[in-house]
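User: Sequence in, structure out. Go.
Assistant: Echoing your sequence, followed by the structure tokens.
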Amino acid sequence: MVFMIIILLIVIGAFMGMVYLLEKQISLDKYHPATILIAISLIGSIFAAPLLFYKFQIPTEPKYWTIGIISMLVYGVGSLFEFKAYKSVDASTLSLIGKLNIVIAAIIGIILFKDTYGLSGYIGLMLIIIGSVVVLYEKKAFYMSKGVSFVILMAIGFAVATVLDKIVLEGFSPFTYVFINNFGIGILFLLIYPQARKELWDLVKSYYKLVIPCALLTIVSWAGFLYVLQNYQISYAYTIYEGTSLIAVVVFGIIFLRERLKLWQKLLGLLILLVGIILLNGIH
């Protein structure tokens, strides 16, 4: 049973790594980031719809819906910065720097929820910071491009959304929320950016071979991870899942997208990040 769970975590982690590469390819064209976000979210909600029949639960208290909507907006804004970043930043570089969201979420947790970590946890957080930014080191200085700034804003958005989701999931079933979240993001940003209606069908028609697999892999990966959490320790599950997704996007990016600029820095950052994630999650 444990072996099968580990295999499942490795597979869905690799799926999430592939999502980064698909998003990178879609983002290189003319389409507005909001259009890409809406397309992936709404198609994802179609794939997530069957989850409504598994442990369906929605809250009656308005606060959970309010926080959920705020989380969707924050995550959506983070995604807009992500798609903007892809126009000038490698998928592998984005994945490495994007892991700063772990540190940001941890800091928010310490401040708001009084979360505590042992010595190994704090060392892990420091290593995650180092591993995330080592790819920025150039000519004895850390270089910040416009694209990197977008990645950092993405990381902040994703971290805040993660913290908000922690509260939201007190009221929602995780599997119900997978659908609600995707559908909600798609509808909210369609209302915020109505111009996307003009581009949406053209995007799906032109890039359906990328958009549909991207949405499907995102849902399968997310739902699979939530399923594992019901039966496995979160520290082990999170470490294997995050570690595999990180390895996948860096390795696949180098091989398939030929992202070989700063190759050794990427590999070093990957190694440091993996050690940091392991220490943070208490794996010994």
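User: And one key feature?
Assistant: DSSP finds eleven helices and two strands in the chain.
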